[in-house]
Amino acid sequence: MFVRALLLCLCLLLAGLSPAHAHMGSVLPEHVTYVAIGDSVSAGWGSPPVNGSRLNGYVSHLHRQLLLRGSSDLHNLGIPGLTSGQFLFLLEHWPELSQTIKKADLITLSVGGNDIIWTDHQSPGDVAKMREALTKYEENIEKILTDVRQLNEDARLFVLEVYNPFPVDDARHAQLAEWVIWVNESLAAAANQHDASVVPTASLFLKHENEYVNLKQNDIHPNNEGHTRIAEQISHALFGKFIPLLVQGDMNPTLLLDGKPKQLHAGLLYENGTVYVAADQLRQLYGPETIRQLRTRIGALWLRMNGKFVKLPSPVLLYGSEPYLPIRAVSESLGAKVYWVEDSRTINIVTRKDPAK
């Protein structure tokens, strides 16, 4: 085991950078096609469903980070229970998978945990069978990354380490430790050869298993906190920061100004797919020096701001004796960019040139 750990460290040293920051490729485009591939971790398992969807898995978290900074399409092709061999089969026989990978600007991959799980399930305690399976995994992960790069040589590519789900003081941790190191060693070596960044999930979860894994539900998948930590690692590698956006049922709209939470005396209103702000809160948001004069009326599809006529996409509303205006139209008329994240009901108004900072 010591030799494998040493080899893993050498692979990372040869890469010249820490695992999650090994790739220094081109900046993502303004519109990002994000493709998540792999097993149940990519599918978001372990995070409780919200309105029937796993909106707090690491993939959804990362997609929201993209939406805060521009537009993005998400294709989540995570399949629970998928092994590396099964993934290779799909890569060769499922045309839609290959075509989707070709179009991606950003790819994340989680695969390897089920190679351990299924081998142990079929041959419990059989060390020879496990070594055979993980030797095959070495070949598979190399072939997977080769094929992905042949399909798409330019996308930012992140591969997740396999983590040990059990605490260090649990006997099962020691039983799995060698196999987890083996998988991650193989993954790091392949990633180094194919311009991929390794997300250090194993070290991230180590000694935090009770915090990040659904062990209380007798489940080895990451919980909400675990999925958040994974997304945070990737977001920091991409943008240098992470803005937590946890999705819950029946949420009120949240306002961010240049990526930072902004509290208004009167909350935002979400009506018929449009976010509204109270007219008297605009000066609190932008400052009285920016909005010197504002005139409109209830039901109007226009307003006059600082002497400028602004057309509105929906009429001015009356709510709680206050007129409410569509916040996107007002903000864009002031030269700001506006990004809306539907599932977390978050609106990010960007007034600076670099929305990622």
From TrEMBL:
Q: Which residues form the signal peptide?
A: 1-22
Q: Which UniProt keywords apply?
A: Coiled coil, Signal
Looking at the record, the residues that make up the Copper amine oxidase-like N-terminal domain are 293-349
* Chain segments annotated as coiled-coil in the UniProt record: 127-154
Quote the SUPFAM superfamilies the UniProt record gives: Copper amine oxidase, domain N, SGNH hydrolase
Instruction: Give the SGNH hydrolase-type esterase domain ranges.
Output: 36-228
InterPro entries registered for this protein in UniProt: Cu_amine_oxidase-like_N, Ester_Hydrolysis_Enzymes, Mao_N_sf, SGNH_hydro, SGNH_hydro_sf
Query: Would the keyword Signal turn up in this protein's UniProt record?
Result: yes
> What's the short name of a Pfam family annotated to this entry?
Lipase_GDSL_2
Write the protein's name.
GDSL-type esterase/lipase family protein
Q: What is the lineage of its organism?
A: Bacteria, Bacillati, Bacillota, Bacilli, Bacillales
